Amino acid sequence: MHVVIMGCGRVGSTLARTLEKRGHTVAIIDQSADSFRRLSPNFTGRTVTGMGFDREVLIDAGIERAEAFAAVSNGDNSNILAARVARENFGIGNVVARIYDPGRAEVYQRLGIPTVGTVKWTVDQMMRRLLPEGSEPEWRDPSGTVRLAEVHVNSQWVGRLAFDIEKATGARVAFLTRLGEGVLPRADTVIQEGDLVHVVMLERDAAKIESQLGAKPEEL
Hints:
- Residues 1-118 form the RCK N-terminal domain.
- Residues 133-215 form the RCK C-terminal domain.
- This protein is α/β, with parallel strands linked by helices.
- The protein folds into two domains: 2-123, NAD(P)-binding Rossmann-like Domain (Rossmann fold, 3-Layer(aba) Sandwich), CATH 3.40.50; 134-214, 2-Layer Sandwich (Alpha-Beta Plaits).
- The chain contains seven helices and eleven strands.
- It has helices spanning 10-21, 55-60, 76-89, 102-110, 119-130, 162-169, 206-214; strands spanning 2-6, 25-30, 46-49, 68-71, 94-98, 115-116, 139-140, 146-151, 172-178, 181-183, 196-202.
- Helix 4 links the parallel strand 5 (94-98) and strand 6.
């Protein structure tokens, strides 16, 4: 898929290289053309000089065909503004913003804009949200048999019981992240819009389960 990144610092350049290695097309935006020197000489994506919340700049970066947008510049305000423009003006579903101020990050998380911080952790978490399918496990047991992973669920799972996921897949819903807080599912817990679903599953079944949850649910 096509991903647009705002900010070509350490996080942005690492994220761009990682995405390209996985076979995705990437466009990266930065105010300074010199910042693009951080990219690998083998980088084949598009580089666009400008402000990442400017409509024309975003269009030049291919936002109209993008499926994901990451705002990782060094300015909290710019990142939030760009993330909102990508989501609200261009309808991008997978949007994430880097926020340095933990207090502000919590506020925006509660408004439904996923936010992350710190370089190594940021790239990992960005990958989880930009590439819902096949995300990296959050934990794996020493034998490599069982994994805990945040799994993308199709929007049509919203309104269903968390237990329905278990019945459909045989996996276990370990917890949900809702408005930035962890929630342990009960028998009557319903999946809400914006929930992040963390599932414990057998390693060998991971691809199948991610595929099931990425599609609309069958009648149970």
